[in-house]
Design brief:
It is a single chain. By secondary structure, the chain is α/β, with parallel strands linked by helices. The chain has two domains: about 60-210 and about 430-500, Alpha/Beta hydrolase fold, catalytic domain (Rossmann fold, 3-Layer(aba) Sandwich); about 215-420, Serine carboxypeptidase S28, SKS domain (Four Helix Bundle (Hemerythrin (Met), subunit A)), CATH 1.20.120.980. It has 15 helices and eleven strands. The strands form two sheets. A nine-stranded mixed sheet has the order 1-11-10-7-6-4-5-3-2, sandwiched between helices. Strands 8-9 form a two-stranded parallel ribbon. β4 (about 95), α1 and β5 form a beta-alpha-beta unit. α12 packs across α13 and α12 crosses α14. The longest helix is centred in the middle third of the chain and has 20 residues, at about 270-290. Residues about 5-30 and about 30-55 have low confidence and may be disordered. It holds the Pfam family Peptidase_S28.
Length: about 500
C-alpha cells in the first residue's frame, strides 16, 4: 500500500510509518519553472523566471543538439545554476531538473530540496530544459526544429551534463540524486530508469508517468477537490457552465457575455473551436486554483496564491451575487483582478496566430508552442470534458487534437501512435527500477496519472491527503498541514537510507 498521510493519522510518530512500505502495483520544474496561460497542459506551473537579484549567476554548458545521431556534431549552450553553500567533501550531488518553462533561480535559494541538501552536505545543480527559458538549441521554433525537443533528448542532456560536470569537478564517484516536480518529476523517474549508472536515486514529485491522449480524469479530480470543500460547489459550477453553453447558442447574448466576463473584444463564435477555447479559458480559472491549492509558491514570485478552493467555492455559493452563471462570471473577474489583467482575451484566431509564430520572442505565452508540441508528439494529456463526472462542458478531445494538426501538422492518428510509443519506452505505471519515491497530493488532478501505490519496497509512493501539485517541494511554513510535514520527513528518511546503499 502507499505511504498515505492524512489528518487522521498525523499525530502518529514518524517512525511508525516506515513499516507501511510494502509491495503493491502507478505533469512544467520542477514546479520550479514557469509556464504561461495557454491551453492544453494545465498547468504544471505558472511561476515565471520573475525573481530578481538572484544570488546565483546563470552558467552555460556546451550541449549536443542530437544525442542519437553521432554524425551530427552541432552544439548549443544550455543554462544551469549551481549552489555550493551546503556541499561537504564526499557529499552527494543534487540535480534539479528543469521543465516546460524558464528555470527559476529562486529554487537555488529556497525549497525543500535545499533543506535536505543542508542536512546531507549536497552540492546543488539545476539544469534548464532544452527549448525553454534561455536554452535555445536552434535558431527558431519551426516544426522542423522542434523535432529536437523530446523527453528522450532531455534525458540525454541530463546524462551528458552529469557526466561532464562530474569529470570537471571531481564528482564522478559521488552519489547523484535527481529531483523534479510535474513533467520534470517524470523526467527524474525516467532518468533513474534509463541511466541507472549515472543517478543513484530520484524524487519524482507529482509525476505523470502514464501518457494518454484523452485525460478527462483531470476534471473528475477537479470535481472531487471542489466537493471536498463544499459538496454544492461543483454542482453550482456545472450549472453555470451548462447555462453558459446554452447562451452561446444565441448570438444575441454575446454582448452581455462580453460585459459579464470583461472580454477584451466582443465575443465572436464562428466555429466549435471558438466556443471551446472560450469555455476552456473560463474553466481554467478553477483548474489552476485546484491544481495549486494552498501551495507555498510565493517565493517564486507567483501572484494569486491567496485564491484557493475555499475562496472559489465561497463565491460560487454566495447567492447574493445572483444565479450560478453570475457567480461564475464573478470568479472570472476575481481572477483577472488578482492577476492585474485589464480584460480577458478569448480570441481563438489570435491564439492560433500566436501559437504558429516560430520566433523565440514571438507573442505566444511563455513556452506555449514548445510544450503543446510535446503533448502532440509524446504525451497527449488533453484535459477534455468527455467525462460526465466533471463540472464543465464544451471542450472535447477533438478540440485539442485539431490544434496538433493546425500548429504542427500532426494528425490525431500520429498523436495516438506517439503516446503508445512513450508508454512502451518508459513502461507507464510498470516502472522497473529502484530508489525512486513518488510523492503525490490527493487534491492535485495530476495524481490520476501518477504512482499513488507502491510499486515495490524500493519504489514507494507517498500519497498526501489534502495537498496539491508539488506541495512537498515548496518551502515549509508553520501552518503546513501535519501530513505534508510528515511527507517531507519521510522523503528525507528515504534519501538517508538510499545514500547509505
Amino acid at each position: 500500500m502507499p505511504f498515505t498521510i492524512s489528518f487522521f493519522i498525523s499525530t502518529m510518530a514518524f517512525h511508525t510509518f516506515v513499516v507501511l512500505l510494502c509491495q503493491v502495483a502507478v505533469f512544467l520544474s520542477l514546479c520550479a519553472v514557469g509556464e504561461g496561460r495557454y491551453s492544453i497542459f494545465r498547468r504544471f506551473k505558472e511561476a515565471q523566471d520573475t525573481k530578481q537579484g538572484s544570488l546565483f549567476e546563470e552558467q552555460w554548458f556546451t550541449q549536443k543538439l542530437d544525442h542519437f545521431n553521432g554524425a551530427d556534431t552541432r552544439v548549443w549552450k544550455q543554462r544551469y545554476f549551481i549552489n555550493e553553500a551546503f556541499y561537504r567533501p564526499g557529499g552527494p550531488v543534487f540535480l534539479m531538473i528543469g521543465g516546460e518553462g524558464p528555470a527559476n533561480p529562486a529554487w537555488m535559494e529556497d525549497g525543500t530540496w535545499l533543506t535536505y541538501a543542508e542536512k546531507l552536505g549536497a552540492l546543488c545543480l539545476m539544469l534548464e530544459h532544452r527549448f525553454y527559458g534561455k536554452s535555445h538549441p536552434t535558431v527558431d521554433l519551426s516544426t522542423d526544429n522542434l523535432r529536437f525537443l523530446s523527453s528522450r533528448q532531455a534525458l540525454a542532456d541530463l546524462a551528458h551534463f552529469r557526466t561532464m560536470i562530474a569529470e570537471a569537478r571531481g564528482l564522478t564517484d559521488r552519489k547523484w540524486v535527481a529531483f523534479g516536480g510535474s513533467y520534470p518529476g517524470s523526467l527524474a523517474a525516467w532518468f533513474r530508469l534509463k541511466y541507472p549508472h549515472l543517478v543513484h536515486a530520484s524524487v519524482a514529485t507529482s509525476a505523470p508517468v502514464y501518457a494518454t491522449v484523452n485525460f478527462p480524469e483531470y476534471l473528475e479530480v477537479v470535481w472531487r477537490s471542489l466537493a471536498s470543500e463544499n459538496t454544492e460547489c461543483p454542482l453550482l459550477v456545472k450549472k453555470a457552465s451548462d447555462d453558459l453553453v446554452e447562451r452561446l447558442k444565441d448570438p444575441r447574448t454575446y454582448e452581455n457575455i462580453t460585459k459579464d466576463f470583461n472580454l477584451c473584444s466582443k465575443l465572436q463564435i464562428q466555429t466549435d473551436m471558438d466556443s471551446a477555447y472560450f469555455l476552456e479559458t473560463l474553466a481554467g480559472n478553477f483548474m489552476n486554483v485546484v491544481q495549486y491549492n494552498e501551495d507555498n509558491r510565493g517565493f517564486e514570485g507567483v501572484t494569486g496564491t491567496n485564491i484557493t478552493i475555499k475562496v472559489l467555492c465561497s463565491v460560487m455559493t454566495d447567492s447574493s451575487l445572483g444565479d450560478p452563471y453570475a457567480r461564475y462570471a464573478a470568479v472570472a473577474r476575481l481572477m483577472m483582478e488578482t492577476t492585474s489583467m485589464k480584460c480577458l482575451d478569448t480570441s481563438f484566431s489570435k491564439y492560433v496566430s500566436d501559437m504558429t509564430n516560430t520566433s523565440w520572442d514571438g507573442p505566444a505565452p511563455i513556452a506555449g508552442r514548445q510544450w503543446v508540441y510535446q503533448t502532440c508528439a509524446e504525451f497527449g494529456f488533453y484535459q477534455s470534458t468527455d467525462s460526465p463526472n466533471q463540472p464543465f462542458a464544451g471542450f472535447p478531445l477533438v478540440y485539442f487534437l485539431k490544434q496538433c494538426t493546425n500548429f504542427y501538422n500532426i494528425s490525431a492518428e500520429q498523436v495516438a501512435e506517439a503516446v503508445t510509443q512513450t508508454n512502451e519506452y518508459y513502461g507507464a505505471y510498470d516502472i522497473r527500477s529502484s530508489r525512486i519515491v513518488f510523492p503525490n497530493g490527493s487534491i492535485d488532478p495530476w495524481h490520476a496519472l501518477g504512482v499513488t501505490q507502491d510499486i515495490s519496497a524500493d519504489l514507494p509512493a507517498i500519497f498526501i491527503k489534502g495537498t496539491s501539485h508539488c506541495a512537498n517541494m515548496y518551502p515549509a511554513r508553520s501552518d503546513d498541514p501535519p501530513q505534508l510535514t510528515l511527507a517531507r520527513d519521510h522523503i528525507f528518511f528515504l534519501l538517508q537510507q538510499w545514500l547509505k546503499q
